[in-house]
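An instance noted here:
***
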Amino acid sequence: MNPILNYDECYALDISSKASLLAASGNDKKLKLINTNSNQELKQLNIGSKGRVLNFSPCGKMIISGYMTLVLWDLNSFKRLFSLKGHKHMVNGVQFSPDSKMIASVSGASYTPHDYTLRVWNSNDGKLIHKLKFDRPLTGIFWTKEKNILISSENSVIKVDLTNLKTEIIYEGLPYFNFGFCYEKNQILISDPQGFKSGVKGVNVISLEGTLLHRLTPDIKQDVTKSVFNVLVKGIDGGYIAGFGIEDYIPSPTNKYFIVVKWDSNGKEVNRIEEFSDSLLQAFTFNQETEILYTCDSKGLIKKWGFE
């Protein structure tokens, strides 16, 4: 483990397609770009609002970040390209399309005025292409190989066909913590909703047709004093990766630790990273080629890990 930098209240991490840049953002209204070779900060960009979401473009030329207003940046000049305005509440998810030509964002909060919307933007001029309204808060978003959009709410996953703007509920059930997608295999990952009843926390892998393919359950020492506070999931080529933030309430609620587990495509655990600390796992990103994991805890400390 190698601590890199400490940013107060860091909420989002992402790594560029060529793994040369790490991006971090949080409540200080700054987007930080870090050189992954030197582990030194390369640039700070002023977002103008909190940075709760961010995403590098697959082409490696742009990055987007923000809170309600999203800011698109050019990575060659570090200049602001466009501000994408329209969301009335915090954006919970943003992602470039696979060809980098479009950006999709979702928002939603339980308080009024509601803004349960999916918005699709043109990355070339920043103009809004589509706006779809839903009847529930939207919490996450991913693009599929076919350029359809998957969005999540508190208890469902919805597919949006951009050719005709038709929507289809793929999964609906108990609430879940987090939502991910395995682009290579077109598989959905959701933190195990059955954990709310059974106490067994894990990740369910589901096909785009809604079929349960795997149930990934890490070996966590469970007892009544422990609670899985946060689950972060991510699909990778040839497998899956998930992080679990865990809090032990006895003898005090300050005893925390996290586990990041890597599984192969058959659902077999192949590696893990585990750390005890006084803070919880807030965000992580993983580079497949280098097998390097970057984590950020609830105190804003960014760390660099290698899967051995």
The chain has a mean pLDDT of 83. Residues 195-198 form the longest helix (4 residues).
